User: What shape does this take?
Amino acid sequence: MIDESTTPQEAVRLAIERERGAKDFYTQAAKIAKYPGTKQMFEFLAKEEIKHLRLLQAELDKDYMQEM
Assistant: This one.
């Protein structure tokens, strides 16, 4: 959970965890989808979550490098 004491880095780490969970959910949903259109939708959403993960990880890495 995020509150006033949460650092930006902690918030990004939490967001990364949630994006991973969403990606896993959509990937699993695509595997069990019975209709091609539904499968494609879940595959698309999983790919979007991967994009979000990359953006968040880049922000975390940028912050890490600035602290060094």
Q: What stands out?
A: The first helix runs from residue 8 to 32. The radius of gyration is 15 Å. The chain has a mean pLDDT of 93. The chain has two helices and no strands.
